[in-house]
Amino acid sequence: MSSVGNPTVNPEVGAKPNYLQNGHTVASWLLTKDHKRIAILYLISVSVFFLLGGLAASMIRMELVTPTGLMMTSDFYNRIFTAHGVIMIFFFLIPAIPAVLGNFLIPLMIGARDLAFPRLNLLSWYFYIGGGLLGLSAILTGGVDTGWTFYTPYSSMYSNSQVMLTILGAFVAGFSSIFTGINFIVTIHKMRAPGMTWFRLPLYVWSHYATSIIIVLGTPVVAITLLLVGVERVFHIGIFSPELGGDPVLFQHLFWFYSHPAVYIMILPAMGVISELFACFSRKRVFGYHFVVFSSMAIAGLGFLVWGHHMFVSTQSMYQGLIFSFLSYLVAIPSAIKVFNWTATMFRGSIRFQTPFIYALGFIGLFVVGGLTGLYLASMSTNVHLTDTYFVVAHFHYVMVGGTIMGFLGGLHFWWPKMTGRMFSDYWGKLAAMITFVGFNLTFLPQFILGYLGMPRRYHLYKFAPEFQIWHILSSAGAAALALGFLIPAVYLTLSLFNGKKASANPWGAKGLEWTIQSPPLTENFEEPPIVTEPAYNYDPEEAELEEDEEAESEEPVGARA
Amino acid sequence: MKVDRSHSHPITMYLATFFALLVLMILTVVMAEVHVGPPGVSAYNNLIAMAIACFKATIVVLFFMHVKFSSQLTKFWAAIGFIWFLLMFILFADYSTRPRERIEGWEKLPTDQTVAPH
Amino acid sequence: MSVKADPVYHQFEDIEQQNESYIVGMWVFLVTEIMFFGALFLAYVVYRWNFQHTFYEAHKLLDVKLGTFNTVVLLTSSLSMALSVHFAQLKKRWHQLACLGATMGLAGIFLIVKFFEWKAKFEHHLVPGPGFQWHGDAPANQAQMFFNLYFAMTGLHAIHVVIGILVIGVLALLTFKKHPLVESFVPNEMVGLYWHFVDIVWIFLFPLFYLIPV
């Protein structure tokens, strides 16, 4: 990667090279131990997978515009939606925020020179690439038609598709996730700068700590479960096979034991980003900091106790169902507490509507809808009607896309100047955020209606109910807008690398150790280890007022001036 | 060269742990043959076997793996793994209550084929 | 002469922070291993709960003597591993290498015995798959489930033993060459933690498969 920054390749005489300039060879990138470079490697790779997953989504939406399946056979459709699910979940949503933003920011936010295990970090990226390549090769050699959930006995005994390859891909990617989790846990425990006590940590760090705990406790279970499916296919060791006295529902128990906490792996980092955005763009500390901390840990813990709500109709005993339904309602509470706290942060704050904050506000709206619709699914009586319909699809897209991806984009925009040393156009940023918001709602709101009306998920033929078509058309139109909303930032962010205004150390006027160092940072992050004496988000209301007066006079946000 | 002995422990500790493990292993083998509790009920034997295994694991963790002499943080992570594993047994709420669910038409299901209620 | 200090990597402030980080990191990894094996143990308990009598009948086809012998072998290897850490701390390289070698040797014996056990199962058509034949009174499908679990769990355990032998081998080689990576006792301690974990898994596998009470 060529030097980003001045037109002149070399840094100024006397100035140390930043982490992007420190080594120009391919080897200096592919064998780097610098957490910031590894974050950039991840950024490029997860973006590629996001694009591929998005292409699969486009094919799905195009197919669903007509009730009679003009574009593809049912078998092909099965493989397409499985590809979409596998890519998006295992190769985008789970790694994205932790591996890109977490890797970059956690050492900076705690005042460390690097993560605890830099080589493990690099290994983690290689495992991600390995897993991704295995998954891609599965897709290119025919794909998998089991759905990303791999339910037995279809996946273990009857499917003729590339189940083994895909399982191996997910298995290897799981190790990538585990290594990142181990790294974050040890780093956050052991490498905090002097004075950085647990309750002075930014909430972003807390959310990644909670996420890493989930990763470490949950991922191995899905690893062994998928491995057992593979072993059943190859060696006929039928742990889940009914003919051998096995229970296919046991697969579902073990699968969802991880896959439910996995959704918290996806959302908690996004919530961490949102905490940072609300604090900065309200110039106020997050309301109820301790409550947000305990809520994050509660979500991590309780998240392990609710997996049965994916299995209400699976022949699991209804007594078990009762327990899981109750616990599922409980786990909604900490999320709600966080939403209240973020909103309360804005009260009497000094608000700035810059691009990252638009994404944060979008997150609140979409996450609330997603979360509330989850409650319909958590109640057994309604779940029985809504399960395996488009209602579920809409629900999880609201939380995963409306939640995690808005969080990812908001964070990417917020820390872009820090990571690259360049600013992007705020006008285009806000425009793209709003297009994304509108496009997203247009895509997925009709799907709630579809689900309520009875459209099953994973079906591409709905000629038995042609009245569904109008909703599918609206949804597909929305998908086009959504795609535009995702493409526009890809363009202007890339262009900013060449044309963007050089960013100062703190273009947004935010508090936090990462904003005290230059943009982009030096390889060793801090010239001297910082000593922390202030609580997190130590915004000063008087300072904020002064800023507002300055801005009123100059008609330009304070931080944007380089 | 002077050696830093601050981390090391006497060999007798390791030998004592090893002998305890061997004795417990012999006990486990013996107890498998000796029936404990009411006839036809193997639950007590199972309980004893698991208790001995847990005790063996504990002394391996404490002494061979040095957890007894480690920081709070290490002790926490050592404990949480085993505790979290036990959490998975919630799913017994499913398997243990399935027999109680009366589902019409299933009463006459052959009992040796699936894990259905018997 | 003064004590030669172990090297501190650049991201750490001092040796204590570094050592503790490595040990905690290894434990977090072991937590993932506990959950990894844990799911299999869970599956085992579910099926044994439902097929208690058949599991008892099926387990009689396992050789308790070999199982006990293997248990003694593995426990001894744990001792030699713990001693290797002890000698690493005392910087007694040759003692350390001898203990590492003993550990590898005992692990090898474990695998050889396992191989013969499995060979016997193969000859008696007790290996899962189309060739499975069950001649007892208990339902064949339940018996096959016992052997499914037996092969899955002892197989996964054996894979971990093989990996252990390889890792210990690498550690021994590096120690022999006085490589700077293994100057401190901590890498040996970390490998030791892994090895003791493998031993703990067997401590549970042994009674669950070989010693099912009537």
How would you describe this structure to a colleague?
The complex is a heterotrimer of chains A (about 550), B (about 120) and C (about 210). Chain A is built from 17 helices and no strands. Chain A is an all-alpha fold. Chain A has a single domain, classed as Cytochrome C Oxidase, Chain A, CATH 1.20.210.10. The model of chain A is unreliable at about 1-10 (pLDDT under 50). Chain C has a single domain, classed as Cytochrome c oxidase, subunit III, four-helix bundle (Four Helix Bundle (Hemerythrin (Met), subunit A)). Chain C has helices at about 15-50, 50-60, 65-90, 95-125, 140-175, 185-210. The longest helix of chain C is centred in the C-terminal third of the chain and has 37 residues, at about 140-175. The relative contact order of chain C is 0.17. Classes of the chains: A mainly alpha (about 550), B mainly alpha (about 120), C mainly alpha (about 210).
Q: What are its keywords?
A:
heterotrimer; A: 562 residues; mainly alpha; Cytochrome C Oxidase, Chain A; 17 helices; B: 118 residues; 2 domains; 4 helices
What's the helix and strand layout?
The complex is a heterotrimer of chains A (562), B (118) and C (214).
Chain A: H1 26-30, H2 35-63, H3 74-93, H4 96-110, H5 118-140, H6 154-158, H7 163-190, H8 203-235, H9 248-282, H10 289-302, H11 318-346, H12 355-378, H13 380-386, H14 390-420, H15 426-453, H16 469-499, H17 541-554
Chain B: H1 11-33, H2 43-64, H3 72-87, H4 92-97
Helix pairs in contact in B: 1-2
Chain C: H1 15-50, H2 52-59, H3 64-89, H4 93-123, H5 140-176, H6 186-210
